[in-house]
Amino acid sequence: MRESLFPAATAGPTHRRVLTAVEFDVLWERLGLGPTPVVLRLASPGRTHGERAQIVAAGLQALRRRGLTDASGPDPELARLLTVLARPARQLELRAWLGRSVRAVAAGDLDLAVLAVRQDSTVTLETCGSLPAGVLGVLPTAVPGPGRASTVPTQVLAEALAHPGDLRQALIARAVPAADATLLARMLHDGGRRSQLTALVTDRWEVPRRLSRVLTVLDGPRGRHLLTRSTADDGTDWTTIGPTDERRLRHRVDELLSEAATAAEQAA
């Protein structure tokens, strides 16, 4: 496997910090970090100024009890993690449906990579060795699913998925070979748990550039498949679904970051 475009961060070990969504919001506001990461879906609680003041006071009290803030400000290590999360040079976002909603962002600069994971009403913060390792570590382990890679025009697949009947028959009716239609229908049917990964890289003007391409991971009882999309020279969009393992998935995520970096350079 080739090396990642972005090398592993060299920061020393850190303790995992588990915050409530309210504690995270209060700390973020006190540090003046701007909007919270979109992928974490953390709305600031409190509909009125009075409600907000009460929530902030309770959040600060809880943080003081845990030794995460005092009169001088938030814990320095925690503040550093949050600051990197707010202004990263690059980041990977994960939106996963694993029987429950799990959202994560791995963000980093030249010195530090930070992973934030939102589950229910908590946010977990910790450093990670690299951005791909961080987000992929959130996913459950899985073996490659059965079958082989199969490619179909994206429009054809979208039309077949929108059809109310049998997916295999809908694909065959749209000129997909029977063998490929069988494989595609089986792999999509098996993928009951789904995760989506995308990348953002900050350009020279410090504007985060989001890559439009998304990796979709499909997990089922028989293993893991990866859904990717690409555009041919003639402009046709294609979708490929096939078995994947940890090495191949890591390679794809590295490619995603590389592509995002190139797009950010071109945009600048």
Automatic annotation (TrEMBL):
<keyword id="KW-0963">Cytoplasm</keyword>
<keyword id="KW-0143">Chaperone</keyword>
<dbReference type="Pfam" id="PF14011">
    <property type="entry name" value="ESX-1_EspG"/>
</dbReference>
<protein>
    <submittedName>
        <fullName>ESX secretion-associated protein EspG</fullName>
    </submittedName>
</protein>
<dbReference type="InterPro" id="IPR025734">
    <property type="entry name" value="EspG"/>
</dbReference>
<comment type="similarity">
    <text>Belongs to the EspG family.</text>
</comment>
